[in-house]
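User: Run a structure prediction on this.
Assistant: Running it now.
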Amino acid sequence: MSHTFCTLPYYQSPVNLSTESHINVTNELQRYGCRVYILQSMKCRRPIYEWPETQRPRERALDEGVESLSDSELLALIIAKGTAEHSAVQLGEALIQRFGSLGEIARRNPVEFMEIPGIGKAKAAAISAAFEMGRRAHLPDKEKVILIGKPSDVHAYMAPRIAHLPQETFWVLLLNTRGRLLRAVKISEGTLNATVAHPRDVFRTAIAENAASIVLVHNHPGGDSSPSPADVELTHQLVKAGDIFDIKVVDHVIITTNGYFSTAEKMGIP
């Protein structure tokens, strides 16, 4: 049995189809601008508590470990409760179908989850919070001394914070004379240029913290870590400003979900 969700631009309404003609109806709905999610399951109308215990996600997670669950079953545990028409697992399937992967879901705004009928504010917030906890679990302990001596150190520290973000963010790592991280400061969000990353903003905190050197860091949401002409120009401007303030710009590292680009390693810092 298959079920089809149709999400209209200005109205959300679930449409359930239980015959083989659902494909033709789906095509017709899409012609009128509907977003359609087709969910297929052997247990379509049965709530999870009526499933055999050996097939329920919660029981399987406890007996076999969470690693035994599919992506949609993991989402089902976060969603916790389905609707009258669809189980939590089916809502998880709808999320995977809509966004393609857990990684893509993690990068999305929770408001987008509510485009799927059956996922309201509470479920959307819970999903977003679960991914945020996963990210924070990989962050270094705040009490730990962080030493930044090479680009891979920058990547290890900053990737969990910014690699997944859907927009560019520009950060500065403030270091003491021994390369110990004093603070990581977010300077701006948005397309990177001299306006959003002005030397005044970059060096104000560095001077206040008595930093001996800084590392410039920003992310590329598209996955390509190669610097743009604007990135290169901004690096040159901030290096010159650092000379004036006697604060060395050690590197400009661009971080993506696929890795990183170190200006110091690949191009050299002027």
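The longest helix spans residues 121-137.
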